Amino acid sequence: MNHQKTYDTIIEKAKFENRIKLNKIDESYVYYENHHIIPKCLGGKDNKDNRILLTAREHYICHKLLTYIYVNNKKIANAYCRMTWDKNGNRNISSKDYAYARELKSIIPISEETRKKLSPSKEKRKKLSEKLKGNKLHKNKKHSQETKQLIKEKRKLQISPRGYHLLKETREKISKNSKGRKLSEETKKKIGIASKGRKLSPECIQKIKEKRKLQSPPTLGIKQSPEWIEKRMIKIRKNN
Question: Staple partner for 147: which of 84, 141, 143, 164, CB 3.0–4.6 Å?
């Protein structure tokens, strides 16, 4: 099948009929859509010579034919895909055409020019940062004392040993997930490096002491035997 020939015959037929768009709905009313004979993505101009009126069926067929004529063209594939479903995402075509449209969009790669256009420049980033100033999600946003008080009352936060705030629900989830979990040597080293120079609150120190007393029996006031002391010294010397 010669796709270019069928495409040209549809356009020549529309030119021969001298079609006109009508606003009033009468017996002679026919629904038409504007179509660019040479697509704008391929250098086609937006003037009368390059535009023509087609029916909805003809318009759809022409865009499908263009995908066969200009193979691996992402912009033409996107134009055809837009015709397969409406703004609300409802599909009004056959499953075969829908599958063909989706496959075209997924297979054809994006060119470097379009990627550069999609990626925001430094000027655009500056404009976005200026717009975001004063937004709720922005860091420079300052809350009033009333809003701060409301946030505190709602959250009912308690300060953790590291200084950040955790909710009771999150603490319970962390405790459930951490039960029976064994840490590797690498993670232990990382925790040791991170914990250097960290100052704990007196309340936290008191809680840790109470937990340790419950976990292991207290050894304060117990005199060790000389044999046990010698064994302990030998182990320390070996480690050193």
Answer: 143
Separation of alpha carbons 172 and 154, rounded Å:
18
- What SS3 state is found at 57? helix
Token pair recorded at residue 61: 């067929």
CA–CA distances in Å: residue 86 to residues 75, 82, 190: 18, 7, 53
Please indicate, yes or no, if residue 126 is contained in any of the structural domains. no
- Residue 15 in domain: yes
Contact 143, 135 (CB under 8 A): no
| Model pLDDT for residues 3-20, shown as the tens digit of each residue | 999 999 999 999 898 888
Q: pLDDT band at residue 167, thresholds of 50, 70 and 90?
A: low
Q: What's the pLDDT tens digit per position in 104-137? A: 766 677 777 777 777 777 777 777 777 766 555 5
Nearest-5° angle of CA 1, CA 53, CA 67? 35
**Does 55 reside within a domain?**
yes
Reported residue count of the chain is 240
Enter the pTM of the model: 0.43
**Taking Cα atoms as reference points, which of 53, 58, 17, 47 lies closest to residue 35?**
53
Contact 59, 35 (CB under 8 A): yes
Residue 101 belongs to a domain: yes
- Looking at the 3D structure of the chain, how many domains does it have? 1
